Amino acid sequence: MKKLNQKVVLETKKLSKHFGGIKAIDNINMKLYENEIIAIVGDNGAGKSTLIKTITSVYKKDEGEIYISGEKAHISNPKDARTYGIETVYQDGGVIPILDATANLFLGRVKPKDNLLGKVFQFVDYKYMRKETVQLLDRLGVTLKDINAGVNNLSGGQRQSIAVGRAIYWGGKILIFDEPTNNLGVQQERKIIDLIKRIRVEFGVSIIVISHNIAHVFELVDRIIILRNGQIIGERIKEKTNMNEIVSMITGVAEKVTNSQSPPSIDTVLGH
Ligand SMILES: Nc1ncnc2c1ncn2[C@@H]1O[C@H](COP(=O)(O)OP(=O)(O)OP(=O)(O)O)[C@@H](O)[C@H]1O
Ligand SMILES: [Mg+2]
Question: Which of 18, 51, 90, 210 is deepest in the core (most CB within 10 A)?
C-alpha cells in the first residue's frame, strides 16, 4: 500500500523507444514505490511489453533515463538490469524443461563444494542447493510432489513459481510480470495471484504486473497506469477508480464520451 514519504525504487524519465516510424513508447514518466504493486494496462500494441523491455534493456532506449532508488542507472543489457535487482518473469517462466527445480533455481550460478574437490574440480554441492530450493519453495508456499522431477513434469503455474523463486533468491527487489496468468487454468491462476501477494509481504519486493485481466489487476495492485499508443494517458489509485473507468481509459471510449458531452462549439451555436 502506498504511504506518504514512501521511497521510490524505480523511476523512468521521458523514456522513449521507436521502431522505425512507430513510437512504441513515447515520453514515459513513471514511478514505482517501495513494496508497491502496480499494473500497467492497455490494449494490444499499447506498448506495455516494450516499456518493460526498454527498462531492462532488452531493447535499447532511444531517449530518457532510468533511476533506481534515486540514483541514475546505467543499464545496457538484461544482465545489468538484474544487477540493479530488476527481475522479469515471463509467461513461460523462462525455465529449462528437462532440468529439475534445483538446477533451474541455480541455473548459471551453481555452488561448488566447499572443499578441495569443489575448489579444484568445481564439484557441485547439489545437496546444499537442493536444501535451499526446498526451503525457498516452502517459503513461497509451493509444494512439489517430486523435487527431483524435471520441470517439464510440473504444471505451468508451478514452473512459473520456480521462476519467481529464482528471481527472489538471487536478490530481485523489483519484480516484473508480463501477463503472469496467461495460458493458465483457473486453479493455477489463483495460485500465481496468491504467490504474487505473498512475495510482496514475505520479501518486501516491489512489483509491476502487466495484465489484460482487469479482475486480477483489481485484486492485486495498489495503482494502475494506463497506456495507449505508447503514451501514459492516465493513472489511478485502485481505491479511487473502478473497472468501468479503467476499461474505458484503455479503449479510449471515456475520451469520446467526454468529447460528446463537451459544450457545443461556437460554430454549432452560431448555426454554421
Ligand atoms: N521488436 C519490434 N519491432 C518492431 N515493432 C515492434 C517490436 N516490438 C513491438 N513493436 C511495436 O511496438 C508497439 C507496441 O508493442 P508492444 O508489444 O509493446 O505492445 P503490448 O502493449 O505489449 O501489446 P500486447 O498486449 O499485444 O502484448 C506495437 O505497435 C508493436 O507492433
Ligand atoms: Mg505485450
Answer: 51
19 pocket-lining for ligand 1 (C-beta < 6 Å):
yes
Stretch 113-130: mean pLDDT, rounded? 76
DSSP secondary structure string for all residues of 11-45? EEEEEEEEETTEEEEEEEEEEEETT-EEEEE-STT
Q: What is the pTM of this model?
A: 0.86
Write the pLDDT tens digit of every residue in 150-182: 988 888 888 888 888 888 888 889 999 998 888
Q: Domain for residue 68, yes or no?
A: no
What pLDDT shows up at residue 180? 84
CATH number, residue 220: 3.40.50.300
Q: How far is the CA of 75 from the centre of ligand 2 (A)?
A: 21
Sequence-distant (≥ 6) Cβ neighbours of residue 212 within 8 angstroms: 41, 179, 182
Residue 42 Cβ inside 6 Å of ligand 1? The answer reads yes
What's the domain count of the chain? 1
Closest ligand by atom to 41 CA: 1
Q: Decide if 176 contacts 208 (C-beta within 8 A).
A: yes
Residue 5: band (very low, low, confident or very high) from pLDDT cuts 50, 70, 90: low
- Average pLDDT of the chain, as a whole number: 87
| Ligand 1 pocket residue status of 49, Cβ below 6 Å | yes
